[in-house]
Write a structure and sequence with these properties.
The complex is a heterotrimer of chains A (321), B (322) and C (348). With 322 residues, chain B is an alpha/beta fold. Helices cover 32% and strands 22% of the residues of chain B. Chain B has eleven helices and twelve strands. By secondary structure, chain C is an all-alpha fold. The chains are: A mainly alpha (321), B alpha/beta (322), C mainly alpha (348). Chains A and C meet through helix 1, helix 6, helix 7, helix 8 and helix 10 of A and helix 6, helix 7, helix 10, helix 11 and helix 12 of C. The structure holds adenosine-5'-triphosphate and magnesium ion.
Chain lengths: 321, 322, 348
């Protein structure tokens, strides 16, 4: 068990290293330091200006280790700055990225945690109902609804939500953020609502399939033959089995939630990590972008190991070997 | 006195062209402590008959006519809740696949006592005590540990024993067993059958045993009902069925049995295939495959007592008893 | 890379026409192939029976996109004072809507400009946007952009996924380890972030958006083909062929790929809708493809909070996007229902 988890972590570490190498390739070879500099100072900048920018932002070193610069080269600096969680400074304004991320984590979590649990709760409950009332009009309607809701871009949910609840009904502010508890709710209610709406359709569809797959299994028939009611069967027999695939989906979703709020945070002016990323895009801030991708994949790898551990807890058949 | 009487049971599949009967006018009765074996080819409606008795035919199938009398009380018109009170308490069922018929994420013990907790007011502890006794009775070694185990930790034979314990925990009046031994290897099969027989005697449970295997029938059954295309074509006491089958289809089934074929002679198969429920021939469904077919076969034969009164056959040209 | 798509009248006309023709050709080849494959053809007939309306809508989108892809330079009636368009490659749709621009917003079918009240050059069915461009015209042009993104990206994604998935699944061992590691690495980067990073690194433009979408979306399908190939490798006739010493390339082409066809079809349709959605996201972040519906929606985000309200910009783009995605999802679902044995079992 322990050795399995250790091996799992080792592979995860390897993947993270792979990500770092990939990022280096992407941001130093595909987009060369010259390209990055030109994006920041403008296409028509003179070579001297570009050189100066590169010196100011630490892009003026050779790409790879070589005689005389075994340590002082971009590759080694990139790897060490990421692996030590130093993360470097923003290309745009020189602020340490670590500090930015520390500031943004709070607002991001304030949005993503309630969104995550509400969405999970709503979609599991609805799909449980759907599985219970399978092959009825209720099932049909929910299915149609979920296909419809999946076909609407999240942009339209944001615009529509702001228009309806902000402009017309004036229930919630259009955007903004305040960490004092009383105002927090007012500012977060709308983004959470919009987030739930935008993602619940596809979750319901997935969970419905999972539930229906379980409902047709033999053990359900056995439970019926014992005289268990349909409700009891759903809750006591089907739900624990369905939780296994649902759990993987849920644990996997944790890191994606952190990025999924990119649009919500930008749309609702919540100063979290998503908004930080959007700012970085607009400011051509490549170093922040690199750091965000690195942190994202780190969380993802962690999520995967957690999923594996969670598996052993909910599924007695799985032992980690 | 019969505990279970099934009368003219018909279970159909509704289609655009009207209902297609899967089980047709099936009648039989079952006395306490006795075993009726149902045999017949795949798709002849054996499982559907058993599930009809439990009121558990899969949607959209439904019982369209007939009565299922448990100690004289008809189960067909009962409400869902009333039917659930019968299921698992008065009538229990065990299934063919012990591998998949147990819930993989719930401990075996908890699954065994579920019926008890559903139907009787007992504490969990007392229920576990009963389960432990029963596990010992059905021959599960180290029963206390097995109650705590998950299904995948048990072998196929042990799983089926656990299923039997699960079905018998309420001492039901009727036990329906749908091919309970098919998935097991031969030595274990024999043990399970012996166990069933013993428990029937002990608990006075009537057994409806569905099987493909005439060897199993010979070992355990008191009476045999032969199904063909949803109908019973012959019902006979075991010994008479084996010594002198009356319906041509029964004769065919027995001739296909290796034990009965003469040494060196080839096994005789029944030519042709079982019709699917949607295109059962008019008249006697077996006629197209029947060596003794005659003009009368255009009409559906009724299941009627043979002249010697020993059994019932649905055939116009039955083998006469010697 | 992106200079390939930079404006240049003749090259523009050429590329868009070439891409349209390539896609058309591939579609024809696909149809011919499918007609030979009995179960697949039967499956398509069933899907067509169930989703006639959605398919008709999709064909309409393709038709509009095609009209906007056939472009040539010069000719036609260039309106007076419109000097630029005389030297530009203009598509059929451009030519139909060759009217002078208005000066700013005008409501649908209005006869005067929205803010200044000055008279309009023409009435516009769906009004005009802030730059005075006809909204109906822009909406129609969005069809080509959406289909281009979907088609070009699929042309990158599906072969890539198929290649790596089948290779990893068929040969296993070290090769599988390496490919699986690459897939794990790519999959570990959260989708939107990776997409954004790629577009930023490649530079903006249609092709780099397509490449970025391709890189982020091939892993899922590659995993699927890898798993399926592993299963197919153990199927009797493949085992037989292998024991007879048939070359792997031949087995893969003759036995493996044809058995993955249904997955390819399902993935193509569902992937397509995902790609169009992702592009809308990129547009919102300001790094999408010019002229997409996502961009129209993104531009309109403050218009809804104006008073009086300007709705005619976002609604047509939103509806066009929604209808395309809905039809794709409906057809994709039907395809999966009919062709995928897993869901077929579920419905029984
Ligand atoms: N859910 C269902 N919907 C429609 N038809 C069904 C369904 N389940 C079973 N049938 C039909 O009912 C007929 C009888 O099935 P049944 O399972 O009772 O056969 P059986 O005699 O138990 O066969 P086997 O020996 O293979 O178990 C079959 O022909 C089958 O096609
Ligand atoms: Mg059966």
């Amino acid at each position: 068990m322990l050795s399995y988890i250790l091996r799992r972590f080792a592979y995860g570490a390897l993947v993270v290293l792979g990500v770092l190498v990939f990022l280096f390739f992407l941001f130093f070879a595909v987009a060369t330091p010259d390209d990055i500099a030109r994006r920041s100072v403008g296409e028509k900048a003179t070579p001297a200006v570009i050189e100066q920018w590169k010196i100011n932002h630490g892009y003026d070193r050779p790409l790879f280790p070589g005689p005389g610069h075994y340590k002082d080269n971009l590759f080694v600096r990139h790897m060490t700055s990421m692996l030590t969680f130093d993360l470097g400074r923003s290309d745009a304004d020189g602020v340490p990225i670590k500090q930015r991320i520390a500031e943004g984590a709070g607002p991001s979590l304030a949005l993503s945690v309630p969104l995550f649990f509400l969405e999970l709760f709503v979609s599991v409950v609805v799909s449980l109902f759907v599985a219970f009332f399978r092959e009825t009009y209720f099932d049909r309607i929910v299915l149609v609804f979920s296909v419809f809701s999946m076909s609407v871009s999240i942009l339209l949910y944001i615009i529509g939500g702001q228009f309806l609840f902000g402009t017309v009904l004036r229930w919630f502010p259009l955007s903004g953020f305040d960490s004092s508890p009383s105002l927090l709710f007012r500012f977060l209610a709308l983004p959470v609502l919009v987030g739930v709406f935008a993602s619940v359709g596809s979750s319901i569809r997935f969970y419905r399939t999972v539930f229906l797959e379980e409902v047709h299994k033999d053990y359900v028939r056995t439970a019926r033959a014992k005289g268990a009611s349909e409700l009891r069967i759903m809750l006591k027999h089907v739900l624990p089995n369905a939780m296994i695939p649902i759990l993987t989906n849920v644990v996997m979703a944790i890191p994606f939630l952190f990025t999924g709020s990119l649009l919500l945070e930008a749309g609702f002016g919540i100063p979290g990590l998503g908004a930080l990323t959007v700012e970085a895009i607009n400011a051509n801030d490549f170093s922040t972008l690199r750091a965000m991708v690195f942190i994202g994949s780190l969380l993802f790898v962690l999520g995967q190991v957690l999923t594996d551990i969670a598996y052993t807890i909910v599924d007695p058949r799985v032992t980690l070997e | 006195m019969s505990v279970l009487v099934v009368q003219d049971l018909t279970t159909s599949l509704p289609t655009d062209e009207g209902p297609v009967p899967i089980v047709r006018d099936v009648s039989f009765e079952l006395a306490a402590g006795r075993c009726l074996a149902i045999v017949g080819e795949s798709g002849s409606g054996k499982s559907m008959t058993a599930l009809s008795i439990l009121g558990l035919v899969p949607r959209p199938l439904a019982i369209t006519s007939g009565q299922i009398l448990l100690e004289g009380k008809d189960l067909v018109p009962l409400s869902g809740a009333a039917q659930r009170r019968v299921r698992g308490r008065e009538i229990a069922m065990i299934f063919q696949e012990p591998m998949t018929s147990l819930n993989p994420v719930i401990r075996v013990g908890e699954q065994v006592i579920e019926a008890l907790l559903l139907h009787e007011k007992v504490s969990k502890k007392a229920a576990y005590g009963r389960a432990l006794e029963l596990f010992e009775r059905v021959g599960i070694p180290d029963p206390a540990a097995r109650l705590e185990a998950y299904p995948h930790q048990l072998s196929g034979g042990l799983k089926q024993r656990a299923m039997i314990a699960m079905a018998l925990i309420m001492r039901p009046k009727v036990l329906l067993a749908d091919e309970p031994t098919t998935a097991l290897d031969v030595t274990i099969q024999a043990q399970i059958l012996r166990l069933l027989r013993e428990l029937m005697g002990e608990f006075g449970t009537a057994l409806l045993l569905i099987t493909h295997d005439l060897g199993v029938v010979n070992q355990i059954a008191d009476e045999v009902a032969v199904f063909y295309a949803g109908r019973i074509v012959e019902r006979a006491p075991r010994d008479q069925f084996f010594s002198a089958p009356a319906h041509p289809y029964s004769v065919g089934l027995l001739d296909a049995l290796p034990a009965r074929a003469q040494k060196g002679a080839r096994l005789r198969e029944i030519p042709g295939h079982v019709p699917s429920p949607t295109n059962v021939p008019a008249g006697c469904a077996f006629a197209p495959r029947c060596p003794k077919r005659g003009e009368a076969c255009d009409v559906v034969p009724r299941l009627e007592p043979l002249c010697d009164g020993s059994r019932r056959v649905a055939c116009f040209y039955p083998e006469e008893p010697v | 890379m992106s200079e390939f798509f930079s404006p240049g009248p003749v090259r523009d006309a050429l590329t868009s026409s070439v891409i349209a023709l390539t896609v058309l050709l591939l579609a024809v080849i696909a149809i011919i192939k499918v007609r030979k494959d009995e179960p697949l053809a039967a499956g398509f007939a069933e899907v067509y029976r169930r989703r006639r309306f959605s398919i008709a809508v999709l064909v309409l989108y393709c038709f509009v996109a095609l009209l906007d892809s056939i472009a040539w330079v010069g000719g036609g009636s260039v309106s007076e004072g419109d000097l630029v368009s005389a030297h530009e490659a203009r598509s059929v749709i451009d030519r139909v809507f060759s009217r002078p621009r208005e000066r700013g917003y005008s409501a649908p079918l209005a006869d005067k400009e929205f803010y200044e009240g000055s008279p309009l050059a023409a009435r516009h069915v769906l009004g005009t946007n802030v730059l005075g461009e006809d909204v109906l015209y822009l909406t129609l042009k969005g069809a080509r952009v959406a289909l281009l993104i979907g088609a070009v990206t699929s042309l990158i994604t599906i072969p890539l996924a198929l290649f790596f998935g089948v290779l990893a699944g068929y040969f296993g061992g070290r090769l599988d380890d390496i490919i699986f590691f690459i897939m794990s690495t790519l999959a570990s980067m959260p989708g939107v972030l990776l997409l954004v990073a790629l577009v930023m690194a490649l530079g903006q433009g249609t092709l780099s958006v397509c490449i970025a979408l391709g890189v982020t979306s091939w892993v899922g399908f590659a995993r699927l083909t890898r798993g399926e190939t592993m299963k197919l490798r153990q199927v009797d006739y493949v085992l037989a062929a292998r024991s007879l010493g048939v070359r792997p390339a031949r087995i893969i082409l003759r036995h493996i790929i044809p058995n993955l066809l249904h997955l390819i079809v399902i993935t193509f349709v569902l992937l397509f809708s995902g790609l169009v959605l992702s592009e809308a996201t990129l547009s919102w972040l300001g790094i999408g493809v010019g002229g997409s519906w996502g961009q129209m929606i993104a531009q309109a985000k403050d218009e809804l909070s104006r008073d009086p309200l300007i709705w005619w910009n976002v609604v047509p783009a939103g509806v066009a996007l929604f209808a395309l995605l809905l039809c794709l999802n409906l057809v994709g679902d039907a395809l999966r229902d009919v062709l995928d044995p897993r869901t077929r079992r579920l419905r029984a």
